[in-house]
Amino acid sequence: MKYEKYEFNAGEKFMSYDFESDGPKGKITKLVQYIETELKGFYNLAFGDKDHVTGEIDDFVITNNGDSKKVLSTVVSTVYSFTDKYPNSWIYAIGSTKVRTRLYRIGIANNLAEIVQDFDVYGLKDGEWYRFEKNVDYGAFLVRRKISKFVV
Amino acid sequence: MNKNDINNIKYPVVKIKKSLDEYNDKIIFKEKLDKANEMLRTYGVPKDAQKPR
Q1: pTM of the model
Q2: Per residue in A97-107, pLDDT tens?
Q3: DSSP 3-state assignment of A40?
Q4: Does the ipTM surpass 0.90?
Q5: Which of A17, A74, A82, A95 has its CA 20 to 30 A from that of B17?
């Protein structure tokens, strides 16, 4: 994505990432996790805010730190990092609310030309998976890295 | 590498933070994972996913 992005950290297995959102509400740690679903090779992507006091992670909180595009762009960067390590994986993503799912859809649509250079992108609509198209209201997303675009 | 370089590259600059590995086998977003499993069970995967690469 062409938007600004934060620098981020990865665990040694590249399954968990964190970065700091920096805005009017101060510095907020975001945690990104990839965890395999019941279906081998399919990983759920989720991210949320880490509470500095309790250490709890919350993906329902509305942070409102004025940097949602930068946060999403950074999360997309972790998708690149994860799929560099696990090139045959599928990444499943859905928002914690319908509003957030729509936000992700808009983010993908706004960067579709760039994203499809590196990923096959699918959206779930009416119980079927379709190649992602703009202006279609999808309920969930699946992406897979294209083989030809790997940097070896 | 400066901020402009970071913003212009597609492949990220990654720093390794070992403490993040504590989350690897921890299901932090359980509701989301449960929902993902339910959706995949119900709707399956794209036809392309069933073909070898």
Answers
A1: 0.87
A2: 888 889 889 88
A3: coil
A4: no
A5: A95
Query: Phi and psi at residue A72, in whole multiples of 5°?
Result: -65, -40
Residues of A in contact with B1 (CB under 8 A): none
Cα distance from A3 to chain B (closest Cα, Å)?
A: 7
* B-chain residues near A90 (CB < 8 A): 45, 49
Residues A24-83 pLDDT 10s: 888 999 999 999 999 999 999 988 888 777 767 776 666 667 788 888 888 989 999 999
Q: Which residues of B touch A (CB under 8 A)?
A: 3, 6-7, 10-21, 23-24, 27-29, 31-33, 35-37, 39-49, 53
Give exposure, A12-33, as e/b (b: 16+ Cβ within 10 Å). eebbbbbbebeeeeeebebbbb
- CB pair distance less than 8 Å for B11 and A13: no
| Strand runs labelled E in A5-78 | 8-10, 16-23, 26-36, 42-50, 57-58
Spatial separation of the C-alpha atoms in residues A73 and A88, rounded to whole Å: 22
